[in-house]
Amino acid sequence: xxxxxxxxxxxxxxxxxxxxxxxxxxxxxxxxxxxxxxxxxxxxxxxxxxxxxxxxxxxxxxxxxxxxxxxxxxxxxxxxxxxxxxxxxxxxxxxxxxxxxxxxxxxxxxxxxxxxxxxxxxxxxxxxxxxxxxxxxxxxxxxxxxxxxxxxxxxxxxxxxxxxxxxxxxxxxxxxxxxxxxxxxxxxxxxxxxxxxxxxxxxxxxxxxxxxxxxxxxxxxxxxxxxxxxxxxxxxxxxxxxxxxxxxxxxxxxxxxxxxxxxxxxxxxxxxxxxxxxxxxxxxxxxxxxxxxxxxxxxxxxxxxxxxxxxxxxxxxxxxxxxxxxxxxxxxxxxxxxxxxxxxxxxxxxxxxxxxxxxxxxxxxxxxxxxxxxxxxxxxxxxxxxxxxxxxxxxxxxxxx
Amino acid sequence: xxxxxxxxxxxxxxxxxxxxxxxxxxxxxxxxxxxxxxxxxxxxxxxxxxxxxxxxxxxxxxxxxxxxxxxxxxxxxxxxxxxxxxxxxxxxxxxxxxxxxxxxxxxxxxxxxxxxxxxxxxxxxxxxxxxxxxxxxxxxxxxxxxxxxxxxxxxxxxxxxxxxxxxxxxxxxxxxxxxxxxxxxxxxxxxxxxxxxxxxxxxxxxxxxxxxxxxxxxxxxxxxxxxxxxxxxxxxxxxxxxxxxxxxxxxxxxxxxxxxxxxxxxxxxxxxxxxxxxxxxxxxxxxxxxxxxxxxxxxxxxxxxxxxxxxxxxxxxxxxxxxxxxxxxxxxxxxxxxxxxxxxxxxxxxxxxxxxxxxxxxxxxxxxxxxxxxxxxxxxxxxxxxxxxxxxxxxxxxxxx
Lengths: 401, 401
Description:
2 copies of one chain form a homodimer. Chain A contains 14 helices and 13 strands. Chain A is α/β, with parallel strands linked by helices. The relative contact order of chain A is 0.25. In chain A, the strands form 2 sheets. Chain A has an 8-stranded mixed sheet, sandwiched between helices. In chain A, strands 3, 4, 5, 6 and 7 form a 5-stranded antiparallel sheet that branches. Helices cover 32% and strands 19% of the residues of chain A. Chain A has helices spanning 3-9, 37-40, 44-51, 69-76, 88-95, 130-140, 196-213, 236-240, 251-259, 272-281, 295-302, 305-323, 369-373, 385-392, and strands at 17-22, 53-59, 105-114, 120-122, 149-156, 159-165, 221-228, 244-247, 263-264, 288-293, 329-333, 350-356, 378-381. At the A-B interface, helix 4 and helix 13 of A face strand 13 and helix 14 of B.
């Protein structure tokens, strides 16, 4: 749906929406004829809610498309994940919870090893320990280039996030990583005229980094790739009229929420019970809450079927606390599927539950992949869920007379 | 989904996909409360496969739209049949299995009868016998026009296919058939400047045809209409990374497969058992197989309910031979519906089964219109089936991180 069309119909309302996202929620049976993780889990509270809800299956980015958590979240937040693409560098920076500005250009950084002639011998500097790379990142923070600011953040092992900031900077820039050893790193090239200034700043930074690191071992040089700016997302306040809060522990989910204009709350930890406590604590301050549960996906990607089942049951046990707040609309879904049997994200549509007192309930007292397949929401693009939730929250006015 | 988006994600894989198309598969009950042809048919093998598959209903060109076999096949092959329209002339030529080149312009030809003043007295020359029109087509093959080549192929009775070939030819051209008698045939007019050269070649051909045929009776003239070039379809290899083979007896299906870049195998006949034998014979040579079963549609269009039931049962009995090859993905569907009770193609969505070991099975052990309506694929555009099949075949990489 066209955002311009939707925005004109947005109306104020004193209602509250909760979007509970269990990361990688959708699953698969371990064997033919078996049950999925969600179907296996004992979920009396979700099942009771399902009976009063409309059920369906959501597709993050179209049929057959497996998404990463970035595009998966954009979709469930109501954005078209193909139109609003988040480049690799920007995603990396969202992951370290850095407040990226609209003009900033971000990249994925690697420490690497070069020989005395500057030829690459190890693109990952022997995957040096995070403590080591954290020190090198600090060392590089002294680098100064006139006209630009630089920010570096350690990530893990040889990886770090790289940000260059200057007013009006434009991408696109080529990678410095030649993706093979035995050759020198590449200079950054501007792939458009407007990007020339950015290329110059980054190349000056790299020249200095070469000097700063030259006597270090094994990490004596850096590689940068995936230069990207953030997509300019319309914000929740402007778009949906919502004063939204995000409750998520991991940086990337916090970053995407910030990108959507949500207030990202400081969480105590990634324990679901802590997250539900945050919801209770801030209940009066916002009218939209996104809660992110990480461990469903973690177990799915590890191939731990039973672990994922337990994680779902843990969330189910917390549902009465959420419902005790009397939210007007509750969405329970995932950003994508992560079947334990595949040990990865997958393209399978995601079970989705939408509760409100105005919903047309399917009357199916079980929240699972196959009950959702029979639900009245149908198989829908994930970006359609927010408009339906807004309608149920009384926030979309009538179109035409 | 945008092809450019999809192409970027296509990944190589050592998997095989079989698309089994029963032409006009979808049906209707003979009377209220009754069963459709597919529901009536005894299909133990398809039912067993259905239990392990995702089921759904596919719409070739949108709600309420009845398609011909050309657009129906484009859709199930993954193309948007409205964007990639095949003009009537081009479709006629695909039907005679002629290898139409990108610059060729094709038209539907009719033998007709004119009086001594050149006014039409019969637009179909009394539907003269095919043997007769075949001779006249041969006679006209001697016609030469400088700068262009012409190809004619008899079809049936008064109908023939007409092709003009010259480098860089452009359409659009007006018809010569005035669609009424008592008037003269019309000269071909170029409907754009670029088409002027083509119009000139065709008019020169028509002038000579008038001379060649003038003493014949009853067919002493020709009419041409539906001038069209082939749409430029992205090929299966480029688009999906697939090395695809088509097993189809009838010319039109072979033509559309060739248009999609498939290798069209020489078939012994249109007997389903022969077609399955072809599949076995060529199993190691390709990674995608399209098999076309004609007789389901033939019986549907004849209004022969029992005949269509038998045709479906014949295919069901062959399924073990297909499954013995251990394909990674199997699609069983149709290009459109042809309910016997309607004696024609219809707009009803088409029962569709998608099997793979990665599918989320609906667990419904019956392949029929109403079980498919409850399936987890939902009611989907037919062009979405290929991306889902590709995902199940491990041929689509993750989008974003």
